[in-house]
Amino acid sequence: MAGESTRVYDGEWIVSSLLLDRADRFGDGTAVSSKRGDVSWVGLVERAERFGGFLAAIGIEPGD
User: CA–CA separation, 50 vs 16, rounded Å?
Assistant: First the structure.
């Protein structure tokens, strides 16, 4: 397991900060489990980054 194993979070309560913290702490551990398969914390961050890139590509900016 990457990073600390504690589940206590003491950072900023912003979704991106939470996701990055969990990816650092739990890496390939399961973040989401569904009938379509599991997604790790690192995988969840990668998906969020791709989606953010998509939104930026179509002209969506922070604050919109």
Answer: 13
How much is the pTM? 0.73
d(CA 49, CA 46): 5
The tokens for 11 are 């950072």
Query: Residues 17-51: pLDDT tens digits?
Result: 999 999 999 999 999 999 999 999 999 999 999 99
Rounded distance between C-alpha atoms, residue 45 and residue 29, angstroms:
12
- How far is it, in rounded angstroms, from Cα 2 to Cα 23? 8
> In sequence order, which residues have a C-beta less than 8 Å from that of residue 30 and are 6 or more positions away?
38, 39, 40
Q: Is 32 helix (H, G, I), strand (E, B) or coil?
A: strand
